[in-house]
Design brief:
Shape: globular
Low-confidence stretches: none
Helix content: 10-25%
Radius of gyration: 16 Å
Mean pLDDT: 97
Number of strands: 8
Strand content: 15-25%
């Protein structure tokens, strides 16, 4: 059976020095590149926000990054401005082997809704197109790696499991934000969804 490697958001803004840096985010790049050699398909995801996105704290008067507000689709963490379309921060980390990618999924480009998952926007209904692509290629087994464990990786893994994929997350090739215990909570949710956590 073929296995796809889904590489989540290895972008400059999520690496040290970036607008929403995840501690050690750049340290997992060599291991991810090595994992690509074992995969039948490699899909990269890329956060791709327009300026003034509704998930940015700067779009809400009096709000600060990491505060949570209610949006029509549910609770939303407000983030620093990050991964703005065409910016250096939105670009993939220079050491990531992007030439190996079969597909790049851009997400978060709708200004009214955030999109953590590689499969759906945060309304859990609007698809990104990844599921259809994997089905067309006959791929049913997925390995997920990337940033951040407790947000985009976890949401992607849970959605993949819900769609019927055999899902593994290599936690040694992920790094988390851990906002108020979000890392432990995300790992528990993934395990409850029958996602296999490695490492």
């Amino acid at each position: 059976m073929t296995r796809a490697l889904i590489v989540i958001d290895i972008q400059n803004d999520f690496c040290p020095g970036g607008a929403l840096a995840v501690t050690g985010g750049d340290g997992i790049v060599p291991g991810i590149n090595a994992r690509m050699d074992e995969a039948s398909a490699v899909i990269l995801t890329q956060d791709w926000h327009p300026a003034g996105h509704s998930s940015f704290a700067s779009s809400h008067a009096g709000k600060a990054p990491m505060q949570v507000i209610d949006m029509p689709y549910g609770p939303q963490v407000l983030w620093p401005d990050h991964c703005i379309q065409g910016s250096f921060g939105a670009a993939f980390h220079a050491d990531l082997n992007t030439n190996r990618a079969d597909m790049i999924i851009r997400k978060g480009y709708n200004p009214a809704i955030d999109s953590y998952s590689a499969f759906f926007e945060n309304d859990h209904e609007t698809p990104t197109g990844l599921h259809g692509y994997l089905q067309a290629r006959g791929i049913s087994r997925l390995m997920l790696v990337g940033l951040a464990t407790d947000f985009c990786v976890a949401y992607s893994a849970e959605d993949a499991a819900r769609l019927g994929y055999d899902v593994q997350v290599d936690t040694t090739l992920c790094r988390g934000i851990d906002l108020d215990g979000s890392l432990a909570a995300a790992k528990a949710r993934m395990q409850a969804a029958d996602v296999t956590l490695l490492g």
